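Incident log, support desk, overnight shift.

02:14 A customer reports that sequence design results differ from what the structure should imply. Their input is reproduced verbatim below. On-call engineer (initials T.W.) acknowledged and began investigating.
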């Protein structure tokens, strides 16, 4: 039996709801769940059918979800009230799960105006107004959504979103990333988290983090495709934005998305041949996190964002120059040696061959 998440135009809100529903169905059935993007909405199909009334209360897998660190980051704009918001998500889904599932078996729409307001750590487009008391006499109406859909979105972001604190231009920020499934399936939500994790590197802004995230996601999917004989799971984009301190509260900066079609198509054509390219790009980002090699990370970011010959030429020229920077080698000998081993003709040629297939 398929379930439907109709899109509203708020990309992060819609994608997070799809992930949230998939996690709920996975917990209920204990089996695989498939997500497909149908342009107008997401279609979520559990491998095992659900018959009769269901209950989330008392399920160990369900309880474990609410121990995730991401909950405080989603509700960062609520400050000390984040745990109350998390508990509201849990209670709402536990008390209304049967009604919610029945409604989502049919095409549905989300009516804005009543319910819960979207937190800043979930959707930068839908965030409006103040989330806690301030001394200023400032008021702005908030965007409210139905409580069931709000709870699903928060759950999806807590389980499948990635948050990383970083400093940019001397200001503390939180980088937020969320993958957009085109056609994917999973058997346990923690497997999804492993697929979407980021290494503990120093990133030069949210675009840099999103580009490295995209390359790492592509490499993990490539390994699966090489083992299975074809690319089974595809992701269309990575949504990204950042949270920054603005006086007495945290606010989201307007986000964007990094398209993944170029990387997905390259893997689908040759899951074995793309390995040198992805490993080389990975170490461009890793070495680029080193002081003195920041331009390498930014050039790799530009290439993954654009996939054109100008960006490719700039990255190759910078890679050659980096090999001659002794201070970078001294500061990070391990990644420098790995980068040197992977800067080979095969990897550079494979990267260039992706260009004609890039989406312009």
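02:41 Re-run completed on a clean worker. Output:
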């Amino acid at each position: 039996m398929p379930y439907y998440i109709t899109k509203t135009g708020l990309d992060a809100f819609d994608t997070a709801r799809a992930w949230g529903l998939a996690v709920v169905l996975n917990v209920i059935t204990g089996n695989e769940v498939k997500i497909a993007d149908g342009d107008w909405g997401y279609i979520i199909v559990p491998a095992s059918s659900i018959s009769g009334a269901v209950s989330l209360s008392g399920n160990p897998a369900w309880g474990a979800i609410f121990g995730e660190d991401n909950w405080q980051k989603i509700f960062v704009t609520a400050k000390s009230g984040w745990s109350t918001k998390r508990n509201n998500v849990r209670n709402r889904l536990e008390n209304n799960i049967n009604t919610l599932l029945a409604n989502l078996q049919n095409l549905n729409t989300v009516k804005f105006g009543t319910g819960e307001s979207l937190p800043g750590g979930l959707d930068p487009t839908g965030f409006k107004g103040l989330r806690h008391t301030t001394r200023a006499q400032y008021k702005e109406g908030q965007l409210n959504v139905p409580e069931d859909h709000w709870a699903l979105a928060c759950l999806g972001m807590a389980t499948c979103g990635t948050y990383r604190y970083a400093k940019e231009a001397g200001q503390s920020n939180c980088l937020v990333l969320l993958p957009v499934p085109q056609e994917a399936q999973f058997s346990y939500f923690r497997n999804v988290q492993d697929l979407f994790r980021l290494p503990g590197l120093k990133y030069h802004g949210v675009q840099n983090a999103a580009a490295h995230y995209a390359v790492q996601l592509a490499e993990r999917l490539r390994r699966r495709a090489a083992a299975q004989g074809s690319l089974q799971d595809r992701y269309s984009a990575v949504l990204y934005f950042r949270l920054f301190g603005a006086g007495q509260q945290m606010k989201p900066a307007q986000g964007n998305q990094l398209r993944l079609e170029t990387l997905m198509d390259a893997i689908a054509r040759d899951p074995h041949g793309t390995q040198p390219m992805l490993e080389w790009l990975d170490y461009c980002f890793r070495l680029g996190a080193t002081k003195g090699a920041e331009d390498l990370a930014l050039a790799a970011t530009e290439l993954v964002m654009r996939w054109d010959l100008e960006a490719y030429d700039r990255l190759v020229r910078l890679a050659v120059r980096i090999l001659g920077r002794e201070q970078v080698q001294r500061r990070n000998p391990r990644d420098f040696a790995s980068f040197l081993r992977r800067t080979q003709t095969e990897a550079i040629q494979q990267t260039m061959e992706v260009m004609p297939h890039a989406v312009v």
